[in-house]
Write a structure and sequence with these properties.
Layout (H helix, E strand, L loop, with lengths): L4 H12 L2 H13 L3 H29 L3 H13 L5 H33 L8 H13 L1 H20 L2 H30 L2 H9 L8 H13 L7 H7 L7 H29 L8 H14 L3 H35 L3 H21 L14 H28 L2 H8 L5 H25 L2 H11 L1
Helix pairs in contact: 1-8, 1-11, 1-12, 1-14, 2-12, 3-4, 3-10, 3-11, 3-12, 3-16, 3-17, 3-18, 4-5, 5-7, 5-14, 5-15, 5-16, 6-13, 7-8, 7-14, 7-15, 8-12, 8-14, 9-12, 10-18, 11-14, 12-13, 13-14, 14-15, 15-16, 16-18
């Protein structure tokens, strides 16, 4: 069990807050109408992300097992079928696959801590910063070493258990992440073009809102909360019966969104002060920002702090990605936490070698969606996760009886509970289905056929 409600909030927030909060959310906000996009995004979060998160937590607490066993037990209890365990299994495998390539990118952040601290970016030009990044990704032994270090850090935390490992880690890392964000925010205010950064993020430009913008908001609202991959369900299994599922879930949503917006307020004033393009995605983090820090007062210190922040965000997410598989091994085969974490970590590490080599030795080896890295990303993020989220929502809204869900949510049977049930049964499944069809390429294929016709 988590020792407190706060520990659960920190853990789930840590799982939700990752690399995407720092680089993806700020730039998609700016590119899609600023404040107008934020409004649409918040509607999507509360209409989709929140009801699915509540569904996943209540299922986890109902089953009190790893996601596979939980879905089997609750499935048998509610419908007489054990086949729902396949949904739990899909989430565990999806998180497992995501961690294999996520660890590689997190390794870049670790490498950049040391590059920043040693002044590698000081006084450099764009070509030199680009050469540093290309040199890192092209050097497979070095990339493999950082991937190995990051996986070892993740395994170390998870092997220590729920309270001694997961809880202690998030109680240190999440406040540290918040402190680093505040320090960097003050630096951005003093050294960056803060007014232009605020304008880019928050000025509502509804003319930039398109159907594609809505799809982007829908997709990010779903993916940012880490639902559909078993992490939230596994963490929910450790939630004390006295803790409020709606209250803790809302707190996680606000923490996740708040950190993403703060990250934008840190990044974009620096971007605009140095005349950089804001819509570069990962390139913004690993090429544009190091170039900016290299030209600014105190750049060595604050670049180091920024990549430390990025590494903390990745670390807390990786813990959530690996925990469901570890919990399954512990419960299914009665292994110790150390044995299970080591076994899962080693398997993820081996799978991650393919992603490491996707940037160098196997860069020309492409099939289906591209490199090994691209295929793992597409299969897990665009197919398995939204499909898992869709089935979790259907299970909680349609398969579980009203008494079971109302008992776990402890909201009574009034307006609040009826709203959740309506969203979980109708709104969330339909919209996640749209996300799934769009992210898997089906909508684009249909549009292509109609345009061709």
């Amino acid at each position: 069990m988590w020792s407190s409600k706060l520990a659960f909030i920190l853990a789930v927030s840590g799982s939700a807050v990752g690399l995407g909060n720092v680089w993806k959310f700020p730039y998609i906000t700016g590119e899609n109408g600023g404040g107008a996009f934020v409004i649409v995004y918040l509607i999507c979060v509360f209409a989709i992300g929140l009801p699915i998160m509540m569904s996943e937590v209540l299922i986890g607490r109902r089953g009190r097992r790893n996601p596979i066993a939980t879905m089997r037990l609750v499935g048998e209890e509610e419908s007489g079928s054990s086949k729902w365990q396949l949904v739990g299994g899909m989430g565990v495998i999806g998180g497992f696959m995501i961690l294999s390539f996520y660890s590689v990118v997190a390794g870049w952040a670790l490498a950049y801590i040391f590059k920043s601290a040693t002044g590698a970016f000081t006084g450099t030009n764009a070509a030199e910063v680009g050469a540093i990044f290309d040199g890192l990704t092209a050097n497979w032994p070095v990339l493999l070493a950082w991937h190995t270090l990051f996986m070892a850090m993740t395994v170390f935390i998870v092997a220590r258990g729920v309270q001694r490992g997961l809880e202690q880690a998030v109680q240190i890392l999440m406040p540290a992440l918040g402190v680093l964000l505040v320090i960097l925010l003050f630096y951005s205010i003093s050294e960056g073009n803060f007014a232009e950064g605020v304008n880019y993020l928050f000025r509502a430009d509804f003319s930039k809102l398109t159907w594609d913008s809505v799809l982007v908001a829908l997709g990010h609202a779903f993916f940012t909360l880490s639902v559909g991959m078993g992490a939230v369900m596994a963490y929910g299994a450790y939630l004390p019966a006295s803790a409020s599922i709606p209250g803790t879930s809302v707190a996680v949503v606000f923490a996740d969104t708040g950190i993403a917006l703060l990250a934008g307020l840190v990044i974009f004033p620096i971007v605009f002060a140095n005349g950089l393009a804001p819509g570069e995605g990962p390139g913004l983090i690993f090429q544009a920002l190091p170039l900016a820090f290299g030209q600014m007062p105190g750049g060595v210190i604050f670049a180091t702090l920024f990549f430390l922040l990025l590494s903390f965000a990745a670390w807390t997410s990786s813990i959530g990605l690996i925990e469901p598989a570890v919990a399954w091994l512990v419960e299914r085969y009665e292994q110790s936490r150390v044995q299970a974490a080591s076994m899962v970590g080693a398997t993820v590490w081996v799978l991650g070698v393919g992603s490491v080599l996707s940037f160098n030795l196997l860069a020309d080896f492409k099939f289906w969606r591209g490199t090994i890295f691209d295929n793992l990303d597409h299969l897990a993020s665009n197919i398995m996760l939204p499909l898992g989220g869709l089935l979790i929502s259907v299970f909680a809204g349609w398969v579980m009886c009203r008494n079971s869900t109302s008992e776990e949510l402890d909201m009574g049977t009034g307006v609040a509970y009826s709203t959740w049930r309506f969203l979980a049964r109708f709104v969330a499944p339909i919209i996640v289905l749209v996300i799934f069809l769009n992210s898997s390429g089906f909508i684009g294929w249909v549009q292509g056929l109609s345009n061709g016709g």
